[in-house]
Amino acid sequence: MEKIVIIGSANTDLIVQTGRIPKPGETVLGGEFRMVSGGKGANQAVAVARLGGDAHFVARVGGDLFGDELMERYAAEKMDTSYILRDSETTTGVALISVDAKAENCIVVAPGANGRLSKADIDRALPVIGQAGYLLIQLEIPLDVVEYAIETAAGLGVKVILNPAPAALIDESCFKYLYAITPNETECALLTGIEVESEADAIAAADILLAKGVKNVVITCGSRGAVVRSEGFFERIPACRVEAVDTTAAGDVFNGALAVALAEGAPLPDAARFATCAAAVSVTRVGAQSSVPTRGEVDELVCAKLCAN
């Protein structure tokens, strides 16, 4: 099993269940309130650890009670927290999340310490980055730090997986350093200008990213599954049929699971199939890290899916 370094955000998620997402200026009465650990980087790190990967998380949290709680949770997940910096000059990141009756969500994030993650923090983590097989990173931290981490890790021979979420544009000169990029349909449209509504759209969008230097493209399409594209190769990965209640961290679980399967030596299409099953389990539960499945749960669904085919 190769080491997996995850660089990204760490938040406390404040979640309210509601019948529908309010319109601008509108107040709606919600239902159950939950406070759980979140942040795209932390979600992916927890997914890697819970699914059996060797997870090393690089992040910043505040010197507050939320930060204390997050550090305790990460230690319980048995991930390496040596490179998480406690920043006493700011607060831990917070996400305010509304989840409606159709399992759709609306999220507002106050970055806090996440916005202070720096290139120096990446340099401080070089000992573990240099030993890793894969680096997994997202866009919920400063973009110049993302670009620096990508180039630095690739220069050390590490395979870099970029989950370009939340949707944002980064310097395309970084693309040549990417082993894989994993946009969803919205992120894909921003990066390529193509709305992914069909298999042909997915191929066209992926080819644009390949032409910019990315080695492999995995486009996640929610209930339609995912597509895998590399030079001369294309495969559609069907979704698992489940009853969704909350899609909050499905993409993060997918990315964490993808990294674990790759670090175990699985070919990319097989890794995407494993990741699709992991994401399917996660949407049947409420919350971010609270929805991350165990390895046994995912293996069971993988087996069931194979038997069904």
| CATH class designation | Alpha Beta
Mean pLDDT score: 93
Number of helices: 10
CATH superfamily placement: Ribokinase
SSE topology string: EEEHEHEEEHHEHEEHHEEEHHH
Which range best describes the helical content: under 10%, 10-25%, 25-40%, 40-55%, 55-70% or over 70%? 25-40%
> What would CATH call the architecture?
3-Layer(aba) Sandwich
**Number of strand segments:** 13
If strands are numbered along the chain, what order do they take across the biggest sheet? 5-4-1-8-9-10-11-12-13
Unreliable residue stretches? none
Beta strand %: 25-35%
What does the main sheet amount to? 9 strands, mixed
Rg measurement, Å:
18 Å
Structural class: alpha/beta
Shape: globular
Assign the CATH topology: UDP-N-acetylmuramoyl-L-alanine:D-glutamate ligase
Give the N-to-C terminal Cα separation.
29 Å
Any overview of this molecule?
The protein has helices at residues 40-50, 65-76, 119-124, 126-129, 143-155, 185-192, 199-211, 250-263, 268-282, 295-308; strands at residues 3-7, 11-18, 30-38, 54-62, 80-87, 93-99, 105-110, 134-137, 159-162, 178-181, 216-220, 226-230, 233-237. It has 309 residues and is of the alpha/beta class. It has a nine-stranded mixed sheet with strand order 5-4-1-8-9-10-11-12-13, sandwiched between helices. It has a four-stranded mixed sheet with strand order 3-2-6-7.
